[in-house]
Amino acid sequence: MALAATSEPVSTLKDVAPAARQPAIEIDAVGKVYHSSDGAVTALGSVSLDIYPGEFISLLGPSGCGKTTLLRIVAGLEDASTGHVHLRGRGLDGLGFVFQRDVLVNWRTIIDNVLLPIDFKNKKPKAYREKAQQLLATFGLKGFENKRPWELSGGMRQRAAICRALIDDPELLLMDEPFGALDALTRDELNVELQSLWQKTAKTALFVTHSISEAVFLSDRVVVVSDKPGRIVEVLDIDFPRPRSLDIREEPKFGQYSRHLRGLLEQHGAFRKD
């Protein structure tokens, strides 16, 4: 198995001629500098990456390397200091975002939380209510539609947050460490559920994680980001068939991928000595 380093965008959609593909997300020389009374801090170096329709891409890197900043720039929640991002299709209107925390509204029921983006867009929620029920059922939340967020476990709330991100059928799904605060067993369950839903819906997914095993399990490609200022040091193709079961983590090739990624993270500042 070749694990050659490359900083160039590489597609895993090998059955389609490269000239025939158009990226769903084009990240072109994006940089981010924050200014404060203590001076300027460069969070992101010049980052370029093409993400193709239907791909599942993970951003993997140390804390503070700019992964979340890049995700927020793609989502239009922050402006880039340099470079630009181009989203094909519906643009920002065709985007769903899952945050690190579920950020559900406590005074709304679970189904009304799922319908919140529909309210914000001044669409008729009744037309989406059946879809919300279907999404909740898909994620094991049937019967909890009228519960309040505080009545659910952390894993159940995060499932509801994913349903909320999907309610308006986004073309692009951006996820910022959505399972980072969950216990290992719940995290594994949600990884399997997310993979299943992604395969059924063919969304283009950009996923931020600190977990090497999570990145390998979920991804078509893992984008390794260096310590700040964040830059892409390698884009690694993950060559496993789908659907993937958790047992795949016992395969030798899974271990090879994981060790290779850990080595890159160690080399590029993931395990700093203070």
Automatic annotation (TrEMBL):
<dbReference type="InterPro" id="IPR050166">
    <property type="entry name" value="ABC_transporter_ATP-bind"/>
</dbReference>
<dbReference type="InterPro" id="IPR027417">
    <property type="entry name" value="P-loop_NTPase"/>
</dbReference>
<protein>
    <submittedName>
        <fullName>ABC transporter ATP-binding protein</fullName>
    </submittedName>
</protein>
<dbReference type="InterPro" id="IPR003439">
    <property type="entry name" value="ABC_transporter-like_ATP-bd"/>
</dbReference>
<dbReference type="GO" id="GO:0005524">
    <property type="term" value="F:ATP binding"/>
</dbReference>
<feature type="domain" description="ABC transporter">
    <location>
        <begin position="25"/>
        <end position="252"/>
    </location>
</feature>
<keyword id="KW-0067">ATP-binding</keyword>
<keyword id="KW-0547">Nucleotide-binding</keyword>
<keyword id="KW-0813">Transport</keyword>
<dbReference type="Pfam" id="PF00005">
    <property type="entry name" value="ABC_tran"/>
</dbReference>
<dbReference type="InterPro" id="IPR003593">
    <property type="entry name" value="AAA+_ATPase"/>
</dbReference>
<comment type="similarity">
    <text>Belongs to the ABC transporter superfamily.</text>
</comment>
<dbReference type="GO" id="GO:0016887">
    <property type="term" value="F:ATP hydrolysis activity"/>
</dbReference>
<dbReference type="InterPro" id="IPR017871">
    <property type="entry name" value="ABC_transporter-like_CS"/>
</dbReference>
